[in-house]
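Friendly challenge for the regulars: who can give me the structure tokens for this chain first? No prize, just bragging rights.
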Amino acid sequence: QVQLVESGGGLVQPGGSLRLSCAVSGFPVDLLVIGWFRQAPGTERERVTCIHGFEDATFYEDSVKGRVTISSDKSESTVYLRMNRLRPEDTAVYYCAAAAPPGRCVDTMFRGYAMNYWGKGTPVTVSS
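First reply, four minutes later:
Bragging rights claimed.
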């Protein structure tokens, strides 16, 4: 059983930065695809980015490309989401999710329904 615990959310001003963490337990990170999703109030959940734990392949949604970096620390069993130049529209609850078996971290396969495990989320508010 994979367990995912997010942390690092909070209030940040527009243009600021934040680093979210997803602590992974119960399964080696290199046997998973780990993804970040977000859901703003009144909207549907949307994908943000993913990383393949073994291949280190990554995918970024167009809305965050160039502002967000996903990385993994296998020794710490943690996946990070670094977000820069944050905008008010980035305000949402951010969820970490995992797929096992991992599949592939590519545009055509990175979907919410493909993820087997989910964390409880960490809220991010971008506001002045």
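The chain has no helices and eleven strands. The mean pLDDT is 95. Your move, everyone else.
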